[in-house]
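Input sequence (217 aa), recorded before submission:
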Amino acid sequence: MTEWRELDGAQGEGGGQILRTALSLSLCTGTPFRIRNIRGGRKRPGLMRQHLTAVEAAAEICGAEVAGARVGSQALSFAPGRIRGGEYRFSIGTAGSCTLVFQTLLPALLRADRASRVELNGGTHNPMAPPFHFLERAFLPLLRRMGAEVSLELERFGFYPAGSGRFVAQVAPAPSLVPFDLEGRGEPLRAYAEGFSAALPIHIAHRESGQLLIYGS
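Predicted structure, token format:
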């Protein structure tokens, strides 16, 4: 029987990334884990909706056995099964970050037995998480250089506090990936800015763009 890994969620910054990384590694290696003090470094420790959705999504794609998966829980056990590709839909129910949930699942889906289509609902552009366009324009191009076939389509923006955003990910299995080195930054090629606003007066967007012009001058 595989030995359980014991984790302390208060280590380091004591945030949700310890849990998300543990889920990803558990899925890919088949190693079960127990974690205590989940988000122990935060003012409101324990699982919030975003983190709970990551746990539930990870469990669904591999048929894991889970205990402690509820909002506010500060302890969790997770025993993964076999990763299964297919069609999935996950909804956070708040403006919590869809992109962080997606990044939790992606390493495992690249090792799945078949292609996957994943629809994620919640926040798409959050101040403390990579926004959708970062994944689409910076993160995924580097993964494609390694041989991964992953595409994203934004169907609706999701901002705080309403959330209600949605994007769809298509992930093909990648039995092996090719490593590469990023040893130099390279010369700047061009710079541009985009601004997005929802349900705000247009003068706010104009003021934002004006500040960008001042900063870039």
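Checked by second reader. The radius of gyration is 19 Å.
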